[in-house]
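Milestone M4 deliverable, item 7.
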Amino acid sequence: MHFSIPETETRAGDGGAAYVAYNIHVNGVLHCRVRYSQLLGLHEQLRKEYGANVVPAFPPKKIFTLTPAEVEQRREQLEKYMQAVRQDPTLGGSETFNSFLRKAQQETQQIPTEEVVLEVLLSNGQKVKVTILTSDQTEDVLEAVASKLDLPDDLVGYFSLFLVRETKDGAFSFVRKLQEFELPYVSVTSLHNPEFRIILRKSYWDSSYDDDVMEHRVGLNLLYAQTVSDIEHGWILVNKEQHRQLKSLQEKVSKKEFIRLAQTLKYYGYLKFDPCVTDFPEKGCHVVVSAGNNELNFQVRLPSEQMKEGSFKVTRMRCWRVTSSVPMSNGPSGSSPGKSEVKLELAFEYLMSKDRLQWVTITSPQAIMLSICLQSMVDELMVKKSGGSIRKMFRRRVNGALRRSDSQQAVKSPPLLDSPDASREPMAKLSSKLTSVSLRGISHSSSANDVGANDFHGNYAFEGIGDEDL
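Output delivered:
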């Protein structure tokens, strides 16, 4: 997650006295508005629980009223503090930190705690309505959806809730995976746009885990619905013969066999992103990025209009970072959140050959989601490398049996596949060896110079390679 405090506001307190409020943005969108004293309270609570040697330094109190320059300095210091806490595995994952952000989010959006009905979509467009509290966190909502669908407890962790934007053709543009520090109902309603929805989708990358999910009827139906949807939206490539075989399996209601065949197809299990811009292999190239199979796949349109394709393995990314440019403004307190023109970039440092690291930059509103995908791939790789189980990756509550719904809802079977799209352009390989393509340096956004070490994601799955491995 990319935390920033790009702006402050002067607001009137309950007694009429003015105070400075700090707008905390997550992924370029306003998450909450807090006072210095609230952040100081969070800091003191973290110190009490984890010790002064673990918690980063906090900007000191001032006796006198701050000058504009001092307000700006404090804003920068608080931003670095929040980034440092979030990046720390212990502090960033603590209930103290996450509950602070959830409470602040609810207070900022002025949404009272009450029972509501939240609509969650499945990949096939089916709507699942769950009764929750506005103050329910992401895990609560995920469990409510799982209960409604009668998904077993031990399969819940294989799925996640995602914030998406529905496009005109019925497809979904992924914004981000919903996190433990936010309230899903508040997150989606505060955007004030019906195009934003919450969708349930599998959250793992290794297709061998499909076997676990397919053991149960509901898991199988969810995976089947997602696979059919991905094929229909062109995320999985299918030729005419493969399409005929898939349709035949659909007609026989052979869901497992359908998924087994789909697993052999190109881009199965990939998440496809909206067209964006990259500096690879040259600046200003239009690209469609897909994430899956422990790689980022690039389908690049060169200035010559030629289409080329190539992939970047996550194990060869030394680190990556997300930078954002948010306009500085002291707009009115009533201004709608999320409407600022925010420029987001994902840049990763890639091992092109044995001794040559190069930066590759993607400029996309979905940069945060790309970063989340990379991190989850690394997490999954490290669990597998240590001989662990993916089931243990997902923290369950100590006393956490699912709250079972009184009424279950079946996952509807999607309709038969339409005819394959014959208009897809053939792709040339980007290069037989990535070393044969020279990369441009990273293109800094206006905020990149302010990015500190805490914005970097170090890759524990990074592997050294030789030229013969490329």
